[in-house]
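forwarding from the other thread:

> can someone predict this with magnesium ion?

sure thing
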Amino acid sequence: MLILVANLGSTSFKYKLLDVSGDLHAADIRPDDRVLARGAVERIGDASESRCEVTIGDYHNVYEMPVPDHGIAVQSCLDQLTDAQHGCLKDASEVSAIGFKAVHGGRKSGTFLVDDDVLEAMAEMNAAAPAHNPPYIAAMKLLRERFPDLPLVAAFETEFHDSIPEARRVYATPPNWREEYQVQKWGFHGSSHRFIAERTAELLGRDDLRVISCHLGGSSSLTAIQNGKSVMTTMGMTPQTGLPQNNRVGDFDPFALPLLIERSGKSLEVLLGELASEGGLKGLSDRSGDLRDIEAAAAEGDAKSALALDVYVEEIRRHMGGMIVAMGGVDVIAFTGGIGENSDVVRRAICANLQSLGIVLDESRNEGHRTEGPLHVESSQTQIWVVPTNEEWIVAKRTKQAIGN
Ligand SMILES: Nc1ncnc2c1ncn2[C@@H]1O[C@H](COP(=O)(O)OP(=O)(O)O)[C@@H](O)[C@H]1O
Ligand SMILES: CC(=O)OP(=O)(O)O
Ligand SMILES: [Mg+2]
């Protein structure tokens, strides 16, 4: 049974074609052995050309081309998979389902076959997830039109956080906003944090762990995981909140807005658009939302880029402190996502001076490390790991279950 998983990130499109035959929960399953093809497009919508990468069996190609939106990225994925020379499918009908790492379904939190109601529930949340929901809806509609017989499944990112206790889920709003308007802390990056929960339990050989999963990428969030379940997370009602994101603001005081309207003469809509596309690391650095550009500029002495890095790290450490208190300690800190897996600079800054908490990074192990492996010194009470995420594996498992049902 083949499942194509589509992961439309805020800055990227990634896909994997996976063979999900047999028992997927067996201990000896190695998710990477199940991947028949994979591809990625980075820097979607950037002024510069997007970097595209595709691997199908032994065929591997990296090239640059303009990819202005996610629709074109999905189209090129299908073209690659069915390409007469290098493709691995004669026809898209060889795929049993397409699973989407869908972001915000609001009233629909879980894994569902995509139908009109699911698309409507996502559209109701467009205003809450403007960088994520519209491209997913567009891609789902495009694929439904092109392959009307192919089941499409939405595995929503909020599902993993359904276990968060009430006291960490509600905002202190006027009464009934949660019931009437679904205003609550939903949490996102559920597939990634769930993968980290499963993988750290495998790596340490026990599942009674207190883990802080640091998903740091185009969008970033931390999740506290206790005994495999999400118990606290940094994102709230929308994926704009929590840590500063690539170009989205992170936590912000809503009462700044009326004042901003008055002083800037801009409408609420314009200001919200700016907060969701010109803020975050991009706004702070006044340069780029991509950490590679910011690190390079900071290393050359650019003060705004250095500040962007500092703010990002401070916010991560602040939330980490709250999570350590909430769980009464931490057994594993796991770094994942494009930044978590690649940036030794950010990891070092996050772990600096935490000896008194029993958290000690081995700086030489950390340097240049990009693959799965431990980064802590032998005597550190808390283990520190890089664990490359595998959101697609989680989505594939949930998709198989959904079409089975
Ligand atoms: N080598 C690298 N060093 C530092 N940061 C990196 C590196 N590669 C990627 N990144 C960061 O990771 C981000 C992409 O992360 P990813 O998790 O793939 O994003 P998305 O939110 O689109 O799913 C980029 O925007 C960039 O900030
Ligand atoms: C919230 C979310 O899913 O973010 P991204 O895919 O951009 O990492
Ligand atoms: Mg992502």
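The CA atoms of residues 157 and 189 lie 5 Å apart. thats all i got for now
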